[in-house]
Design brief:
With 150 residues, the chain is mostly helical. The protein has helices spanning 3-27, 40-67, 75-100, 119-146, and strands at residues 69-70, 73-74. It has 2 domains: 1-67; 70-150. The protein has a two-stranded antiparallel ribbon.
């Protein structure tokens, strides 16, 4: 199985767990004398099986990410860098947007608001970060489809 397939499977198991939780909660209580629509004990067994499957997938995905190296960097390191780049890009875009907000003054006596950063430069930096993020994400996605799950 390829790493990408395991990631898709992990997402599917997580979704199934969410649905199973709802089914368990719906079966947790009934009106006196009624039976639940589904057997809570059977659902709990299904929960155990799904949790075991998810734990195995997460362990194998994490192991694969930590031992797969490309250009001197593990997938885990790339994922960390991708997360940080995404956060920094978001912050830089918010900074540029806030710095470019104009405050309309009704009178000359009102306080004048000025930007403390160069908006154009900040936007350019955010664009460069976004490009680096896209390229890194593409590299990670490519690795996901060519790396065997361990």
């Amino acid at each position: 199985m390829k790493l990408a397939e395991a990631l898709i499977l992990r997402k599917d198991v997580q979704k199934r767990l969410s649905i199973l939780e709802r089914r368990l909660l719906d079966s947790a209580r009934v009106q006196e004398g009624d039976l639940p629509f589904e057997d809570p004990q059977a659902l709990l067994k299904e929960l155990d099986a799904l949790c075991a499957q998810l734990e195995d997938l997460i362990t194998r995905i994490n192991h694969t990410n930590s031992v797969t190296v490309q250009e001197g960097e593990t997938i885990t390191q790339m994922l960390s860098r991708r997360d940080v780049l995404g956060e920094k890009t978001r912050i830089m875009r918010n900074l540029a947007n806030t710095a470019s907000d104009l405050v309309n003054r009704a009178r000359h006596t009102e306080i004048r608001i000025e930007s403390t950063v160069d908006v154009a430069t900040t936007r350019r930096q955010a664009d460069e970060l976004a490009k680096e993020l896209r390229e890194l994400d593409t590299r990670i996605q490519g690795l996901n489809w060519t790396t065997d799950l361990r």
